[in-house]
Amino acid sequence: MTATYTFDIFSTLDGYANHKGDWGGYWGKQGPEFLAHRAAAYREPLRMVLGSKTYASNAPFLAPGFDRSLFDEWITHMFDSPVTVLSNRLTEPLAWPGTTIEPGDPVEVVRRLKAESDVPLRSHGSLMLNRALLNAGLVDIIEVTVFPVISGATGVDRIFDGADDFDLELIEARTFDTNTQVLSYRPTRHG
Question: How far apart are CA 79 and CA 55, in angstroms?
Answer without folding.
Answer: 11
